[in-house]
C-alpha cells in the first residue's frame, strides 16, 4: 500500500485523505495546529464541488448545518442600506450561493469523515529529501519517517511548497490587502444578511450570520501594501487590526469589543497563489498551496474539494504511478483553476474603494445593476458559466 504524507489539515488535506483511503492508499495528515481549526466565514459549495461533496456522502451533514443568507448588503455608517444583492437575484451564482456552510463546520465534517485516517496534530514538516523510491521527512517534533509521496495542502504559505519548489515570493502575489475573521455576539439588525460597511481608506467592516443566532461572523479587511508581522503572534495581529478600525461607525465598536475575546481569530494577506507546475518529483500541491485566487475571487473551498478528488482519482487510475498521475491531475484541473481564480470586475480597488467618492460610485453601480431594468441581464451573465472541467467518476474506474 502506498504511503502518502499530506501536510495541512484544512479543507484540501482531509478531502484528499478521504479519497486516497477510499482508493487503497495509506494517507497520514500532519497539521501544525493542535486540532481541526475552527473559524472562518461562510464558504459555498456550488457546481462541481457540490458533485464531489455528494460523492463523498457529505451532503446530509452539510444540509444539517446549512446557512441561509439573504444576500449581500452594503451599509452606511448609520446602518442604512446603500446597495444590496439579494441571493435570489443571481439564483445562487452571486456572492451568496445556494449551499452555504461555515468553513469551521465543513472542516469538522471532513474530520469526522476521515476519522480512520492517521492525523498528526501539533506537528509539521521541517525537511524533505526525495530519492527515486521515496521521500524522507523530518518533523518539527524530531520524528523521521519515509513516505512514497508527499502532498502540500498547507495553504497559501505552504511549507512543503517552500521546501520542494522554492521561496514563497515566487508564487504568492499580494493583492494589496489583509483580512481577518472571528466570531462575535450578533447584533439585532443582521436579519440573515451579510452586511458590509465600507469606510474610506479601503476598509471593510462586515458581519455575516452564524449558524447559532446568538453569534455572527465578523470580518475586518483593509487595503495595505505588504506588512511585516509575526504569523504566530495572534495578539499582535489583533492589535494591528484594531489600530486600523478604531473610531469607525456602524457596528465597528461592537466588533472591536469582541475582537480580544475571540478564540477563532484568523488573519492573512489577500493574495493569489500561482504555481506553474504543481509537482516536483514525488511532491505535489493541492488547494491554496498550489492555486488560490484569494478571498476576493472566492471558490477556494470548491477548488480544494475538486482538486483533492482529481489528484486522488488520477493517482488511483495510474495505480499510484505519480509520474503519470501528477501531470494528469494538472491537465484535468488547469482550465477550471484559471476560471475560478478570476477576480470580480474591478478587483480589490472596486470592492474596497479608498475614497468616499469611490464608495458612493461602487454603491451606485450596484444599485443600477440590481435595478429592475438590469437585474435580468445581470442574472443571465452570472448563470451562464458552467465549471470548466470534465469531472470523471473515478469511483467507477477504480472499483
Ligand atoms: C482558520 C481558517 C479560516 C478561514 N476562513 C476563510 C473564510 O472565511 N473565507 C475564505 O474564503 N477562506 C477562508 N480560509 C481559507 C480557506 O479555507 C481556503 O481558501 C480554502 O478552503 C482552501 O483550503 P486549503 O485546505 O487549501 O487551505 P487552508 O484551509 O488554509 O488549510 C491549510 C491548513 O494547513 C495548515 N498548515 C499551515 N502550515 C502548515 C505546516 N507548515 N504544517 C502543517 N500544517 C500547516 C493550516 O493550519 C491549515 O489548517 C480560512 C482558512 C483557515 C485556516
Automatic annotation (TrEMBL):
<dbReference type="InterPro" id="IPR036188">
    <property type="entry name" value="FAD/NAD-bd_sf"/>
</dbReference>
<dbReference type="InterPro" id="IPR002938">
    <property type="entry name" value="FAD-bd"/>
</dbReference>
<protein>
    <submittedName>
        <fullName>FAD-binding monooxygenase</fullName>
    </submittedName>
</protein>
<keyword id="KW-0560">Oxidoreductase</keyword>
<keyword id="KW-0503">Monooxygenase</keyword>
<dbReference type="GO" id="GO:0071949">
    <property type="term" value="F:FAD binding"/>
</dbReference>
<dbReference type="GO" id="GO:0004497">
    <property type="term" value="F:monooxygenase activity"/>
</dbReference>
<feature type="domain" description="FAD-binding">
    <location>
        <begin position="3"/>
        <end position="320"/>
    </location>
</feature>
<dbReference type="Pfam" id="PF01494">
    <property type="entry name" value="FAD_binding_3"/>
</dbReference>
<dbReference type="InterPro" id="IPR051704">
    <property type="entry name" value="FAD_aromatic-hydroxylase"/>
</dbReference>
Amino acid at each position: 500500500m502506498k504511503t502518502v504524507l499530506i501536510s495541512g489539515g484544512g479543507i484540501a488535506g482531509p478531502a484528499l485523505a478521504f479519497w486516497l483511503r477510499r482508493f487503497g492508499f495509506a494517507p497520514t495528515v500532519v497539521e501544525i495546529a493542535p486540532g481541526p481549526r475552527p473559524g472562518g466565514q461562510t464558504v459555498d459549495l456550488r457546481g462541481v464541488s457540490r458533485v464531489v461533496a455528494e460523492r463523498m456522502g457529505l451532503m446530509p451533514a452539510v444540509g444539517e448545518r446549512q446557512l441561509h443568507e439573504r444576500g449581500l448588503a452594503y451599509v452606511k455608517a448609520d446602518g442604512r442600506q446603500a446597495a444590496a444583492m439579494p441571493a435570489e437575484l443571481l439564483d445562487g451564482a452571486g456572492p451568496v450561493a445556494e449551499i452555504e456552510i461555515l468553513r469551521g463546520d465543513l472542516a469538522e465534517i471532513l474530520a469526522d469523515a476521515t476519522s480512520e485516517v492517521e492525523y498528526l496534530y501539533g506537528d509539521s514538516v521541517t525537511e524533505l529529501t526525495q530519492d527515486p523510491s521515496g521521500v524522507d521527512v523530518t518533523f518539527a517534533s524530531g520524528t523521521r519517517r519515509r513516505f512514497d509521496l508527499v502532498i502540500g495542502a498547507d495553504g497559501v504559505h505552504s511549507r512543503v511548497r517552500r521546501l520542494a519548489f522554492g521561496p514563497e515570493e515566487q508564487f504568492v502575489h499580494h493583492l494589496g490587502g489583509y483580512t481577518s475573521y472571528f466570531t462575535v455576539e450578533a447584533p439585532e439588525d443582521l436579519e440573515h444578511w451579510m452586511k458590509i460597511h465600507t469606510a474610506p481608506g479601503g476598509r471593510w467592516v462586515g458581519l455575516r450570520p452564524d449558524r447559532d443566532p446568538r453569534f455572527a461572523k465578523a470580518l475586518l479587511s483593509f487595503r495595505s501594501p505588504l506588512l511585516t508581522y509575526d504569523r504566530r503572534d495572534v495578539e499582535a495581529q489583533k492589535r494591528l487590526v484594531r489600530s486600523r478600525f478604531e473610531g469607525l461607525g456602524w457596528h465597528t465598536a461592537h466588533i472591536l469589543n469582541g475582537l480580544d475575546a475571540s478564540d477563532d481569530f484568523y488573519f492573512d494577506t489577500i493574495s493569489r497563489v500561482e504555481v506553474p507546475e504543481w509537482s516536483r518529483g514525488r511532491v505535489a500541491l493541492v488547494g491554496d498551496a498550489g492555486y488560490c485566487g484569494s478571498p476576493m475571487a472566492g471558490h477556494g473551498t470548491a477548488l480544494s474539494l475538486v482538486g483533492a478528488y482529481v489528484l486522488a482519482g488520477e493517482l488511483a487510475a495510474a495505480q499510484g504511478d505519480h509520474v503519470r498521475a501528477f501531470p494528469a491531475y494538472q491537465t484535468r484541473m488547469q482550465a477550471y483553476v484559471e476560471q475560478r481564480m478570476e477576480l470580480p470586475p474591478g478587483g480589490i480597488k472596486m470592492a474596497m474603494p479608498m475614497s468616499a467618492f469611490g464608495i458612493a460610485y461602487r454603491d451606485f453601480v450596484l444599485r443600477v445593476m440590481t435595478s429592475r431594468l438590469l437585474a435580468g441581464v445581470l442574472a443571465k451573465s452570472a448563470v451562464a458559466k458552467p465549471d470548466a472541467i470534465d469531472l470523471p467518476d473515478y469511483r467507477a474506474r477504480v472499483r
